[in-house]
Sequence to fold (407 residues):
Amino acid sequence: MQSFICPFCSLLCDDIRLEIKNNSFVPLNSNCLILKKSLKRKIKDHFPRIKGKKTTMSIAIEELAKLIKKSKSILFAGMGTDTKGTKVSLDILDKFGGTIDHFSGDSYSKNLKSIQEIGGVYITLAELKNRCDTIIIIETTDQTVPRLFEKYIFPKETINKIKKRKIVYIGSKKPQFLLKNKNRFAFNSIYLNSQNLLNLISQLRQKINNNSLDSTKDKNLTFLFKLLKNTNYGSIILSASELDKDLCDLIINEINLLIQDLNKFTRFAGMFLSGIHHLVTVNEVLLWQTGFPIRTNFSKGYPRHNIDQFSTTRLLAKKEVDLVVWIDSFHEEKITFKKNIKSVLLGIPTHPQKKNADIFIPLGTPGLDHNSHLFRVDKVVSMHLKKIRNISLPSVFEVLSKVKERI
Ligand code: SF4
Fold:
């Protein structure tokens, strides 16, 4: 049996036990679908490829170095990597200019705009688990970070022995984990579309700030008003990627303002979930190296950050880059190819688009095939993950360090 810190989403569960059979792994104590699916992938070949044809690692690295030297405008996209992978990507961008973005850039940018305008108050996973007497989950299913519900919202025990925790789900989707366990865990649900969700939060803010329900007959509003007024330590959990795209900015802004309103008389904080590609890790490295998050460009010799101008979708659509280096060392996220833009994929060996890239270089997964550091979703913990699989697949750091030597 092998202890394992799971690298497949930003929850970084450190309680996983694996059974090892012929270099393949079976989770013994978790039914997390992302974990199971990720460990089941069978690696049939791990050859680098140039235009779909098998080649050697040294030739692929040489060709990538040539493309980077020739490029006038590089984009590092996806960025599914760890701290060392991000650092070496930044070293190359520092020397050659170019832009860095991430798979979760679109949803993160909505959150970032709101933080830049009005600020934010955030909670850690330990506070969520041990202190919160009220948890409001907005439009978040168990697909973003699957074990969040069982580990932190309905834990078997808490340090503070919280007995009466109120859980409310608000949104348009059915939260499967909650519904499957409705006989075990008490929770309230309010099913609303995004427009009504926005209205509800705005009205709630108004009532909270007036400290009065006036003559409202809205049952949901009355219920939430009373609940929040009696909360000692509350949290709102939100997954921006699951919100309606058109109203996402407004909803996030209203939630951040609601949290500020609530902090005038109680303690309340938010947790914005960022999914499976370790955006938090990439952002933390960027912030300590440059002072800016993703969507930063280095072509003028200093970092310039712009969340709209430097989005992957926009840069590819406007053909403002001539080389895109996609990095995905955890999953098999679909990537975009554009005519007249060279595409390089540094990805896991089972990636279904590996034959479509100009250059494909197979990678190991951090915490599975090599030691690694990753940041947890609440940013306060950096986890050290240890290699457990014996397979000769390089890390992003190893590949890009060799590229760096050649350029
Ligand atoms: S919730 Fe995330 S970290 Fe935990 S086992 Fe599932 S994929 Fe891994």
